[in-house]
Amino acid sequence: MKWHHVADNWPAFYEAIQDKWPEADEAELDEIDGDQRAFITYIAQITEQDPREALEEIRDWLTGEIPSDVVMDPIHDNHSIALSSKYVSDGEDEYDDDARFGDDGDEDDG
Question: 24 lies in which domain range?
Answer without folding.
Answer: 3-69
